[in-house]
Amino acid sequence: MSDTGRQSLSDKAEAKLKPDSEKSTTEHFGDMLKGKSDSAASTAQPQSEKSYSQKIGDTFSGNSNNDQPSLTQKAKNAMGMGDN
User: Fold this and answer.
1) Distance CA 18, CA 53 (A)
2) Which among 16, 54, 66, 67 has most CB atoms closer than 10 A?
3) Is residue 2 part of a domain?
4) Do the domain assignments include residue 84?
């Protein structure tokens, strides 16, 4: 199961396992968009709010933010409005 707004682990696996030579141009484009969207969602979502399965999926796909603050928190911190 994936977190809201995130690509499921089975969808990621399916996209990786299907050879590029068997994918249409539309599939290539879709995979690229889904990958970028999922990566952005991974970065935006704090590690502490991710489900266990999403943390594992991010680790294997390289989308882990390693307990870094969310983009919103980074912006607040930059403007001096953060908790830190």
Assistant:
1) 22
2) 54
3) no
4) no
Q: How many domains does the chain have?
A: 1
Mapping DSSP onto H, E and C, the string for 1-60 reads CCCCCCCCHHHHHHHHHCCHHHCCHHHHHHHHHHHHHHHHHHHHCCHHHCCHHHHHHHHH
Burial 36-49 (b: 16+ CB within 10 A, else e): eebbebbbebebee
Q: How many residues does the chain have?
A: 84
Q: Is residue 4 part of a domain?
A: no
Structure tokens at 15: 């996209």
pLDDT digits (tens, 9 = 90+) for 31-74: 888 888 888 887 788 878 888 888 877 777 766 555 556 556 66
